[in-house]
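Journal club prep — side note

Before the paper discussion, L.F. wants everyone to see what a predicted structure for a comparable chain looks like in token form. Sequence:
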Amino acid sequence: MGVLRAMRVPIGRPENAGHALRARREALWRQPLEPVIVAWDGRPPAIRLRLPARRADRPLSCVLRFEDEGRDPLEWRSSAAERRPSKRVDVEGARYAESTLRLPVARLPLGYHRLHIEAPGISARALVISAPSTAPRPGEDGRPRRSWGVFVPLYALRSENSWGAGDFGDLERLAEWVAGLGGRSVATLPLLAALPEFDPAPSPYAPSSRLFWNELFLDVTAVPELARSEQGRSMLRSARLRRDIAALQSRDLLDYGVIGATKRRVLSALARDFFATPSKRRETFEAWLGFHPSARDYARFRAASERRGPWQGWPARERDGRLPGRAGPAEEEARRYHAYVQWLCEEQLSEVSARARESEIELYFDLPLGVHPAGYDTWRERDAFAPGASAGAPPDAFFSGGQDWGFPPLHPERIREAGYRYPIACLRHLLRHAGTLRLDHVMSLHRLFWVPNGMAPGDGVYVRHRPDEEHAVLALEASRAGAVVVGEDLGTVPARVRQSLRRHGMLRSHVMEFEIEPDARTAIRPPPADSSASIGTHDTPTFAAFWRGLDIEQRVARGWLAASDARRMRAERASLRTAIVDFVRREGRLPRSVSERPLAPQTETAVLRACLAHLAAGPAAMVMVALEDLWLETQPQNVPGTTSENPNWRRAARYPFEAFRGRPQVVGTLKEIDRLRRQERT
């Protein structure tokens, strides 16, 4: 009942379920065309047509308008004889005929096309998605068949230039360094817009918007307006700002509020100077706004959020997306500021991605499943979401009570009726810069677990999506961008999900920590060729923590494990360690001098390198290396299932960029990975 209400089904009481089901069936039969039709590889599909039986013999006027407006529309008349009803059905006292409508064309161009049919008493429209059956694959478009890259959260990537958190300048320097070692990818956590005004430790997986960037990552010193802003340059030279930056750089845990406020002091001064005087850059900015009018809308939302808090508490008119055209001086300045910094983000990221591509390296971005319930997307794209429920996961062995992730799920029918406009916009935002795109919880293309508001995860249910249509959107957008797609398919995954990934050219995720067994002959299962392989993820223990069993002790300390379960898990982990040591020794990847004791420091380091070498020498299309593993970091970036009890998403890397880029253990391991990957490419 709770899920049905979240889907806006007018059911009222449980005893009305039969009536609601009949009403839904009737509505489907009264709809002549499905809202979305897929044409794979341009092959015209057989289109299901449903008409009232008394009108089924009428000729239809049909028009297919192509996405390319310069191409003449396809117009034809479809006779009843051509369609020949395949079945007749009685629905709630009315008779309907189902037949097949065919397009009079041998091949459709790729793109989003609009079909319109009309006759007296009949009118219907549908989106025809003509998509390639597969997204780009490794080995195509000049990509190596097997590559490697590194992963580090950008916020954790500190340098002598950053202000307590990594920025786009640091991302560019990291990409240049990795390219010099032979790598092809730099992966990070989502860089999307946050709500620092009332979310002090924002999760990158619950952004305010999947359509805009987080200005926290701006490299302030690279903003061109500094050259002609005396106030901005004076602030950069001031002792106060230098002290503030030094204090931020010295902290092990990021304070997003202080970092953002420090950057905003300078950026606000630059924005005031920018808008005070006409210039060529001002003209460029205004032209960009003309092409991206939603940026102006987002800026108005952010300014209002700063002044009034979460949008759910705004006046009714403003909750419905209608903000006043004019605002007070302070809010107008905030609006200009947020539009300006979004432009700067787009400008800096464009430069980073362009220079990375020149070095034959790609940015590997992550598309989160959800957005913050008080964010811009849930306000502006209200119909795309089901605010009466949360996305989550059912009870399993790890989370016995299930999971409630706290953000509203997309409404599969509403986004479909809107022609997937919002999901397409989210993909395009990232694919402007990403050469590889990872989809968080790729199972959501098929189904997603909904937890009704006010209920426990155990009371949730799975809600189905339209995987063919969503895969078509994904394949089309990825092909247009020339990007490889990786699906995060960890956990309990239906077989059909991985079959779809394979069929549509997407890589799956292979995480070594989940693929170990206590048999020394087969301890580390080989990754599939169509995978992106790694030792762990941002949600798993680091290699060193896993190896030492620190994740088990953490679960015990939090009361998540009974004493008997903890003893069993410690014994299992010890068996895995022994099996891994024996396995990599059999492979000849452990020096003879390495101790037989798995927990000896020398053994731990050698086993890490051996495991990475095993992945690198294997068939996986991509191997991603977590930089923090290379210096045996034990603290995780995130502990799933925790909030305030753990400093999730706030921990800076132990070493700044200038320190780790020269560490022999780091550089030597990456060079060995590159050697092994190149052996496999030939």
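L.F.'s comment for the group: The longest strand covers residues 122-131. Keep this in mind when we get to the figures.
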